Amino acid sequence: MEAIVNHRNKKSKNIPRETEGFDAQAFLDSAGVARKVKKLKRAEVVYSQGDAAKSVMYIQEGGVRLSVVSEGGKEAVVAMLRPGDFFGEGCLAGQPVRMGTATAITPSTVLVIEKSEMFKVLHEQHALSDRFIAFMLARNIRIEEDLVDQLFNSSEKRLARTLLLLGRYGKEDKPHRVLPKVSQETLAEMIGTTRSRVNFFMNKFRKLGFIRYNGGLQINTSLLSVVLHD
Fold first, then answer.
1. Which of 25, 57, 88, 143 shows a CA-CA span of 20 to 30 A to 109?
2. pLDDT digits (tens, 9 = 90+) for 68-108
3. Which domains, from first to last, does the chain contain?
4. Strand 108-114 to 55-61 pairing
């Protein structure tokens, strides 16, 4: 996932897909990788926090939300994933159980690749290995930038940045992007504020022309001015 904190990040946001020129989906379809296809309904759980970690997932269609629940019962959304993203990769680093819950945010199709098979493919197929490493590096960059965003930016800036990320800012040369369906409660969880604050800022963005509701939530790239404003 790309992250948007300032102009200097512009070069890093294209790491996951464009720079390596590798079509992971075509590779997975043609390389004989042993996997199963899982069809998910909206709000269906892919795996739950505490489940045994035995496989890596790859999103073909739709989207997946990753969330974590604390011992006190508080839930936090840690990522919103889209087609072309891997998740559940913690099992490759020795995690015995899932550290969070993965839930489909729209009707989705996910490839499930067993851990042993993923290890085999990564060792034997350098193209997929390069693609996977690039994705992991980009994920680390995103986590670091998310932390900076949470520590130093206002809730208004965090919301603007999150909307731009969900709208896939920088992916296509279009002035408006339609967001996957996501509630204000989920947005509040993602940026660490209340739903009422999210509602207030969403109304403000709409009045300023940064967003509009037209068959879905559309994001204008001019919303970037909120992120860059000191």
1. 143
2. 988 888 888 888 888 888 999 999 999 999 999 999 988 89
3. 7-146 (2.60.120.10), 154-228 (1.10.10.10)
4. antiparallel
